[in-house]
Design brief:
Elements lengths: L5 H5 L5 H5 L3 E2 L6 E2 L12 H11 L5 H9 L3 E2 H8 L3 H13 L3 E7 L6 E7 L4 H23 L4 E4 L9 H6 L12 E4 L1 H22 L1
Antiparallel strand pairs: 1-2, 3-5, 4-5, 6-7
Helix pairs in contact: 3-7, 5-6, 7-9
């Protein structure tokens, strides 16, 4: 299964197949309407779908999501066959997506075999809302890091960059890294603080755009 690292997601390089498949949905219904292939819907970016679902559920479901985006009412047996995996594993992935409202299903009785078959459809409605929730958590983490570093322009760090230490802690431990034992060197923290500020501003701007 393909890996989806943060850099790839950020650059919009999630999957060539996912990029080529578009989708749309009605604002008045949770059920997606006819897919618009060759043109992604403006409101939801495919890379964001990958990032949100990877963050909340895990990268192992991304290939399944890609298949669901290409077709509504996808039989779980056909999905398992397409992904070359056991149907129970496929169902487990689908149930995990269902817990976050990323899919919905219908069931129909097979006239020949007599049992019910479940058909699954991808639901993009909550992608933006969940993306905002992820951004809010990231924003809090960055602000916490910035507040922690606010009163310190100078830190000490080893060549392996294991951990940053303030002067008092570094001096107390004879300027030796507590992780690897290497000698600590002075580190100018002002550039790092500026990078945090820029990341925070970028997240805030993205949240404003998503909410408008």
């Amino acid at each position: 299964m393909a890996k989806y690292d943060k850099k790839s997601v950020k650059e919009g390089k999630s999957s060539q197949k996912l990029k080529k498949e578009g989708f749309n949905y009605s604002q008045d219904s949770k059920k997606p309407i006819k897919r618009q292939k060759k043109e992604l819907r403006k409101e939801i970016n495919s890379a964001k779908v990958v990032e949100v679902i990877s963050n909340l559920i895990g990268e192992d479901v991304i290939d399944l999501v890609i298949e669901l985006i290409t077709q509504d009412e996808y039989s779980e047996f056909k999905l398992a066959e397409k992904l070359n995996q056991d149907v129970n594993m496929t169902r487990n992935m689908l149930y995990r997506l269902l817990e976050h409202n990323f899919v919905y299903f219908s069931r129909r009785k097979d006239k020949r075999k007599g049992w019910y078959i479940y058909y699954w459809t991808f639901n993009p409605n909550d992608i933006e809302k969940k993306r905002i929730h992820i951004l809010e958590k990231q924003l809090l983490e960055l602000q916490s890091r910035l507040n922690n570093d606010f009163h310190h322009d100078i830190f000490f760090i080893c060549n392996n960059k294991c951990e940053k230490y303030d002067f008092d802690f570094a001096a107390e431990h004879e300027f030796k890294c507590q992780e690897c034992g290497e000698l600590l060197q002075q580190y100018d923290n002002s550039r790092h603080k500026q990078e945090l500020v820029e990341k925070i501003d970028s997240l805030k701007q993205e949240m404003i755009e998503l909410r408008n």
